[in-house]
What does this fold into?
Amino acid sequence: MEKVQLRDRADRISQISKRYMMEIILIIIVVVLIVTAPGFFTLGNILNIFRNVAITGVISFAMTMVIIGGEIDLSVGSSIALSAVITSTVTGKLAATGRMSMDSAVWIAMLIALLVGACIGLFNGFIRTKYNIPSFIATLAMLNVLYGVAAIISKGFPVTTLPNWYNWIGAGRFFNLIPVPALWLAIAFIFVYIIMNKTTLGREIYAVGGNPEAARLSGINVKFVKIIILMIVQIFAAFSGIILSAQVMSGSSTFGRGYEMEVIAAVIIGGTSLSGGIGKAWGTLIGIIFMGVINNGMTLFGVGDFEKYVVRGLLILGAVMLNTIQLQSLQKVKQ
Amino acid sequence: MKLGVFSGLHRSYVITDMEIEVSMSVLRTSNVTKRFPGTVALKDVSISFQSGKVNALVGKNGSGKSTLMKVINGAYNDFEGSLYIDDQEFRYQHPKQAFEAGIATVYQEMSLIPGLSVAENILLGRYRKNGPFIDWKATYQDAQDVLDDMGITLPVKEMVAHLSVWQCQVIEIAKAMSANPKVLILDEPTSALAQSETEMLFALIRRLVKKDVIVIYISHRLQELWEIADTCSVLRDGKYVGTIEMEGAKHADLLSLMFGDLQLKERPADVVALDEVVLEVKDFNREPKFMDINFKLYKGEVLGIAGMLGAGRTELLRAIFGADKPDSGAIFIDGEVVTNPSPVLMKNKGIAFVPEDRKQQGLVQILSIKSNLNHSSLDLISNGMFVDAKKETDFCRRQIKDLDINVPGEEFPMTSLSGGNQQKVVVGKWLNIDPKIVIFDEPSRGIDVNAKQQIFQIIWDLSRHGLSSIVVSSELEELLEICNRIIIMKDGRFVDEVNPDDLSVNELYALSMGGN
It folds into this structure.
């Protein structure tokens, strides 16, 4: 009897540990860093981590919806650059007309940047659904197009025509403590969490990603769902460009290079399946913190930038492997 | 067991018009029992299969046919009992080992690689080598020899992707034959073939039989057994119930062996069509799939569309549901024309579609039973944006209760359900929208007899509530049982309309197959 109980308990523990593998690994890494890394476990440093991950993290949440829906968007890195360049350039031009101050012009500029983002997403979605071109290819092409456009608009130089208050969006702190970007991160999390768990759109995204043909034959508007998720991720990317340009008070076409990798890495580390239909906003939150903690730890230990690339790359590889093994074993358990 | 046991089996054979019988060999299973957790799939099965004959193996779904084949071809090695070929016992650990030793299986699902040539597929991994390089000339010649030996003409260098289903099936068999097998197991080889192709396949099998190969032929299509099989062994609920010689055997004999004392249920008297037209299809065309389709569906009617595979039935149903665009034609629902039909629009008009392939088209397998049951009714369980969690659960439970779906839990993935229960989830998903018309494409495919009867009951219940159904099935006896009216479709056209009470299964088969 006792043996059976023990085995039951062991089974349950192994199941739980499989299900919460990333959480457990994250906790272990955090504990190790607390013990070994000087200055890791200070309030200032922890808050810094959240500030640093916010720019890619905001997009990661939207990307979670895209990947669950069976699509991907590789163009988000250059969308950051484009949005930053548009915001700063438009602000400058509007202010130069003399009709309004930079303080108010930047509002219009931000709105335009977000609208452009929405249009890019609409275009990506249109290409995807109308011509049935894999979003992987379509958005890879867009990655280059958008960088080019950003460079053309900015003529290759950083544009710094931004009002002082704008800095608050990217570098401000509430109560002199909590970084403002952490708020954007929280809003993005809540937004995606509600969409995926509480709305019909969320249900449809899971169905479309899990089996597009079955979803279509269930009377779900698959094309609409795909276009919407590709639009949302672009709007989020545009917003991320605003945060970044606010942080450094300029817009440059060099922004966001390679960020799409970080964005997608966080989603995959968070347990979202690249084949679609499986994933959670919560998992992506873990993935974002994971990436942030690793980056922060490496900085504290003085690891160089080149080595960081190697570590991050291996991390993504490891996460995809873990993710695959985990999904397989979960499916076995459920069967 | 060493592979050498069969080394003497590649004996030469002589085929003359007189058919000299080379020493006949026999594959025998002796008291084979195979257990799975919670169930016994095979109970004490002792059957023998002889060479020189086509040995059919039949039984309804879940009777243990596939399990027995997997025991023989090494896919399962943990069974009780023993296997013999000519009194030599054998037991393989792995299908590859069995294949090399002369037991070849041709599965229902095609396993060819479309991007490779015919020769490469036939000899996959067994190419002739010239040092480290592949000797293509010899490889093509080997493949050509295999095909010549089978009496088949196929271009060995052609890419498989360019070939028809029937040719692919032939390549599957050639692949099996290339190893000079002693035993050839064919698992539903005709399931994807058209009538004329089936004829060609049968000719091929008859040729193979003459080569002293033990052919075991598994099929669901009873009608074809009379054409191809010499003997027919029957499994029922994992037990061997007997073997009959096909020559002189009657349909009823085989049926009673397969099903025991199966009572075909009468269609209830209260399942009747009213005089009101709910759906009208006019001049529907989508060449070459279907042409000149005109029909009316009445309130409460259960309309069957009979026809062989490839008659265009599925394509027609999909076009009616708006899943594919027809070339021309119009659909009227309650007398109003439907412009630009799409699945979304058709759903909103109260039309439900239970597709042929529930795994690929009906369900999202990785998602939960609860979400699958609500995939069509998302508008009804929400305020347009936010899902009402209570309604969602209610909708799910309502169908589980009404359709008697056997589930381990609402949150379990679809993969945890049996075929019949999965099918009920597809039906339940649609009943959640309170449809006016339900289109069923092969509703009983791959589900057991019990679940089948329950699906029929559901269809009749819908009719009693004034819902109309269109049912397509390859099992024509089913259509006779459930429908008020049957339209016969052949080569993309409606050729006849019959009253199911007026004719027998055989007559219906004859009408559907036409002048073959």
